[in-house]
Amino acid sequence: MPVNLLIRGMCSLIPGLEGISENIRVISIVDRFLEHDRVYCFENGGDKQVWLSSADWMTRNIDYRIEVAAPLLDPRLKQRVLDIFDIPVQRYGKSALS
């Protein structure tokens, strides 16, 4: 299953390792004023889900905070978020992949 990660900043994952991460593509986006969203998009058998979350997945935060995630159910908003997520993938293509 293909996995696209849009990462703001450093990523230690090495994509393309056979048997480990060959289906993972990492696009690292760095900018001075870039905000980091906590939006997660999943697809299973054509069923796309979009989740909004407060979690930033840093160990220091997961261990000491209560985080919440909720599905985005409005079809128009869900499609808008999916369209926004597709922009960096199209714009940076393979040239910005880690």
UniProtKB/TrEMBL annotation:
EC code: 2.7.4.1
Stored InterPro entries: PP_kinase (IPR003414), PPK_C_dom2 (IPR025200)
GO molecular function terms listed in the Swiss-Prot or TrEMBL record: polyphosphate kinase activity
Any one GO BP annotation for this protein: polyphosphate biosynthetic process
Keyword Transferase in annotation: yes
Transmembrane segments: none
Species in which this protein is naturally found: Klebsiella pneumoniae
The keyword Kinase is assigned to this record: yes
Ranges in a coiled coil: none
GO cellular component, one term: polyphosphate kinase complex
Protein name (Swiss-Prot/TrEMBL): Polyphosphate kinase
Record's keyword terms, sorted: Kinase, Transferase
